[in-house]
Amino acid sequence: MSTSIRQVQVTFDCAEPERVARFWCEVLGYVLPQPPEGFATWDDYQRAQPPEERGSWFACTDPSGVGPRLYFQRVPEGKVVKNRVHLDVRVGTGLVGEERLAALEAECARLLPLGAVRVELLYDGIDSCIVMQDVEGNEFCLD
Hints:
The model has no long low-confidence stretch (mean pLDDT about 90). By secondary structure, this protein is an alpha/beta fold. The strands form 2 sheets. It has a 4-stranded mixed sheet with strand order 4-7-6-5. The protein is built from 3 helices and 7 strands. The chain folds into 2 domains: about 10-75, no CATH class; about 85-140, no CATH class. It starts with 8 loop residues before the first strand and ends with a strand. Helix content is about 25%, strand content about 25%. It has helices at about 15-30, 40-50, 95-110, and strands spanning about 10-15, 55-60, 70-75, 85-90, 115-125, 130-135, 140.
């Protein structure tokens, strides 16, 4: 049996796909893709859609092509419970103790003005992570 490597896309259910996509672009250094062929801008594309479909999805991609594409789709229901899957933003890889904590705190300070919310610091003196929420309350960790 042969195995093949497949690309992965991470999909978020949300109320405002473009707003959430732009937040994650800032967090991860991702970029917005070019608008679909035949459209000069995303606004032009949105105006061409039926009213009920305008703003129903948005995406962002890793400019290096290595990370997964993130796709954001509008859903009618709001977030009710904790995510069963979340992203870990790896800003402290290889660091321990106070050095790791300082790297996490610096990234937390950068994300708060973008609309992120700090939920909880988990720190045992060696290892640490900061539980955060994005602009629509989806949990993620600074790890």
